Amino acid sequence: MNWVFVPHGLTADVLERWFRRAYRAFYLRPDVLWGLARTLAGEPRYLRRLATYVRVGMADWLFAAPAESALAS
Fold first, then answer.
1. Which residue of 6, 20, 32, 70 is surrounded by the most CB atoms within 10 Å?
2. Do 58 and 48 meet the contact criterion of CB atoms below 8 Å apart?
3. Mapping DSSP to helix (H, G, I), strand (E, B) and coil, where does residue 13 land?
4. Closest Cα partner for 71 from 25, 19, 8?
């Protein structure tokens, strides 16, 4: 993410870590996942698009995500 405002005492790296953590926490909630499953069951044509998003997201998460241990500070 391109941070325009970085509060005093924080760095863009710390903001990026917390952004990723919040994003995952929000979208991995059971009700969000259940809604996605219902959508896919009703419209199977979305599977190809979902597969692309998962592939790109997992690559970004696995190779570009900051270490979780740095979130504690």
1. 20
2. no
3. helix
4. 19
Is position 59 within any domain?
Answer: yes
pLDDT tens figures, 37-66 = 898 888 888 888 888 888 887 777 676 655
DSSP state of 2: -
**Quick check: is 6 in a domain?**
no
Domains of the chain: total:
1
Instruction: Tell me the residue range of the domain where 16 lies.
Output: 12-72
Question: Which DSSP string do the residues of 20-72 spell out, in sequence order?
Answer: HHHHHHHHTSHHHHHHHHHHHHH-GGGHHHHHHHHHHHHHHHHHHPPPGGGGG
